[in-house]
Write a structure and sequence with these properties.
alpha/beta, Rossmann fold, four-stranded parallel β-sheet, 4 helices, 4 strands
Length: 117
């Protein structure tokens, strides 16, 4: 399994767009892709009112018939969720994991950033 973490220390630099473009390319190659949302937009509870950019994109991809098991979104606002999602991706045979981070990582995102090493 290949893990790619997208990080830039400036907001609005195109991290999420890069994740969506890479995921689309890997899907076109027939790869199974998990996208991890480790941004501040990731839903943090059952009452999430607005869809994140990645949630909206996943819905559009599902309309194009890309859905589990080919494509999955994991929202990871905590260290534990990051580790759980990575373990699940490995166990379930995903080819690529793309991790979208926020500009100023919090402790909960450091696990994702360590995947760069």
């Amino acid at each position: 399994m290949h893990t790619i973490t997208i990080h830039a220390a400036k907001g609005g630099s195109g991290r999420t767009t890069t994740v969506m473009a890479l995921a689309s390319g890997f899907l076109a190659l027939g790869k199974r892709v998990m996208v991890m949302d480790c941004t501040s937009q990731a839903c943090r509870g059952p009452k999430c009112q607005e869809l994140s950019t990645l949630q909206t994109w996943i819905a559009a991809m599902e309309a194009c018939r890309f859905r589990p098991p080919e494509l999955e979104l994991a929202e990871c606002p905590t260290d534990e969720r990051v580790e759980d999602a990575l373990a699940a991706a490995a166990t379930r045979g995903f080819d690529v994991v793309l991790i979208d981070t926020q500009a100023y990582p919090e402790d909960a995102r450091t696990v994702a950033l360590h995947r760069l090493i």
